Amino acid sequence: MKTKIVTYEDYFKYSGKSNLDANQVIDLYELMNWNKDAFLYFPITGINLFQIMFHKENQFLVEITNDSNDMVFHQKYVSQSECKELIIKIFEKESLDSEILSGFYKVPIVSKTLDDVIIGK
Question: Are 87 and 29 in contact (CB under 8 A)?
């Protein structure tokens, strides 16, 4: 089974980096104490990371970062079950395609938030 180096922090119990497969990432995700500053991320490609951050109860902000100078990331809000589905898809494909990017907004993170983009600011 494929593994990735996963970085995580919940400022309570879980903190560090581990080489995990998709099922282990989901187990960690379910065990973490998701609160304001908690996060988990892992590489998708050489230039893209998949990051999960707590937004509010049963809603997470997920983003796909890149190393471009534009600082335009793909972001969307997801439920816990949607987040787990994305983790599985990303581990299976190991690349970005229209199925993975479905529902994501392009957010220029230096000047706007996901909410700004959603409401058309």
Answer: yes
Domain boundaries, the chain: 3-118
Contact 28, 22 (CB under 8 A): no
Are 53 and 39 within 8 A, CB to CB? yes
Q: What does the buried/exposed string (b/e) look like for 30-46 if buried means 16 or more CB atoms within 10 Å of the residue's CB? A: eebebeeebbbbbbbee
Q: Please count the other Cβ atoms lying within 10 Å of the Cβ belonging to residue 27.
A: 12
For 54-102, the pLDDT digits (tens) are 999 889 999 999 888 888 999 999 999 999 999 999 998 877 888 889 9
Distance CA(116)–CA(114), nearest Å, equals: 5
- DSSP letters spanning 49-114: EEEEEEEETTEEEEEEE---TT-EEEEEEE-HHHHHHHHHHHHHH-S--HHHHTT-EEEETTT--H
How many other CB atoms are found less than 10 A from the CB of residue 62?
23
Q: What pTM was computed for the model?
A: 0.91
Token readout for 56 is 């509010």
